[in-house]
Each structure stands twice: as C-alpha cells, then as structure tokens.
Amino acid sequence: MGQKANPIGNRLGIIRGWESNWYGNKKDFAGKLIEDNKIRTYLNARINKGGISKIVIERTLNKLIVTIHTSKPGIIIGKGGGEVDRIKEELKKLTSNEDVQINILEIRRPEVDANIVADTIARQIENRINYKRAVKMAIASALRMGAEGIKVKVSGRLGGAEIARTEELKQGRTPLHTFRMDIDYANVFALTVYGKIGIKVWICKGEVLSKRDLNPNFTGGKSEVSDRKDRRDDNRGGDHRGGERRGGGGRGRDSRKA
C-alpha cells in the first residue's frame, strides 16, 4: 500500500492539511474544483523559475485567497510589487472573481522541500548535467539540512540511452506506511531532447508526535527539522568531549609507564 498511495493524500487529516480550503454544494463544487486546477496550472506555467513548492487556495463568500509557497519570493513580487499586481489581474480574468488576494510565503529550507528538490533535479537534467550527479547533490543537501531520509527515483531514457529504465537512489529512512512520519512527496518530469525523464522524490522530515495544526499555511516558528538538526549537533559535541576525556586517560597511562 505504501508504494501505491500518494504519501501526501495518505496523510490528509492526520498530519497534513488540504491545499484547497472552501465549502462547495452539489451545484458549484465541480466548477470550483476545475477552477482550482486552472489556477495551479496557470501559476506553475507563469512563474516557471519561481521555485514554487505549493499553491494553497482558500475561498470565502466572495473572496479568493491564493497563497504561493516559494523559495524565491523576489521573482514573484517583482520590482516594487508590479509582478504580483499583474498576476492578480490575470487571475481575475481566469476566475471571473472580482476580489482576488495573493499572499507569498517564503520557504526557509528549500533543500528539504520535495517539490523544489525534484524541480531542481529536473532543471539540471534539462541542462544536460549527469542525472546521477544531480540526484546525489540533492540527497547530500537534504541530509545536511536535517532530513531523516530521502529517496529519489528517476525513470526514462537516462543519459540518452535507447532503452528506458528506472533507477533509485536513497539514503536514510523513508517509512511510507507510518502515518505519523512527515513525508513530503513530489512527482515532476524533465523535458529533454530524447524524451521525458520522470522524477519522484520522497523526503522524510521525522515523526509528528504532538497534535499538529492542519492549516497548510501554518509555519510555527522554528521547524522540527531544524530542532532535530540542533539536537544532533549537540549530541555530536558531547561525543567529541568524551573523546577528549578518553585521550586524557591515555596520556595518564603513558606518564605512569615513563
């Protein structure tokens, strides 16, 4: 089951919130759902190099609030906020909604965000960088920033080979069956001259043991990933001090022999 269900959909309502927050009755539910898909497709194509992680859509009675989570807010905001105003006007035409509000949230740690990691690998493959090198660099960056585990699967005509194949590289742990594990997942593709290369990324950010706010826009101060990284550094420091003490004992024995 862990291999077949989307890890994000699998955890909805448990440790993850929905990326579309609104109520729709039988008449207008389908229309709103299609509109959400149009907004996401349009923004991902419009802000191609904006490092978008996710787009959260909220609706009130007559207001549409679009929150863009990105690692490069400067590209989306533009000079003096001009780019945001243009995007807002374009969304008004696309959705026929007069009151559109756009919020931009910056992602502090893009190295542990599956969508951004997958997109970075895809762009590198498109620029003819060796796929193994791109994947290994992404894995090293994620683990350095405190991820517990990462798994990357690439498939297609890798390196321009005649026969398509699938390769998987992983490090650390990514337990897909454990629902309390915060696993981020992304599935993107790279458009190369010899065909599409599919890229799947799973990043394990650790266990969620306390009750979590399911609002997808919630960023509660210091992230759990950074907390774990700090604790790991503290432990490493403790081991180092112990090594010094052991070294001191060795010097003592040498002096007794003398």
Summarize the topology:
Elements: H1 7-10, E1 20-21, H2 29-46, E2 52-59, E3 64-70, H3 73-77, H4 82-95, E4 100-106, H5 114-126, H6 131-144, E5 149-156, E6 165-172, E7 181-192, E8 195-207, H7 224-257
Parallel strand pairs: 1-2, 3-4
Antiparallel strand pairs: 2-3, 5-6, 5-8, 7-8
Helix pairs in contact: 2-4, 5-6
Rounded to the nearest angstrom, the radius of gyration is 23 Å
Number of helices: 7
CATH superfamily of the largest domain: Ribosomal protein S3, C-terminal domain
Instruction: Please give the oligomerization state of what you see.
Output: single chain
Please bin the fraction of helical residues.
25-40%
Number of strands: 8
CATH domain class name of the largest domain: Alpha Beta
Average residue pLDDT: 82
Proportion of residues in β-strands = 25-35%
Please write the string of helix (H) and strand (E) elements.
HEHEEHHEHHEEEEH
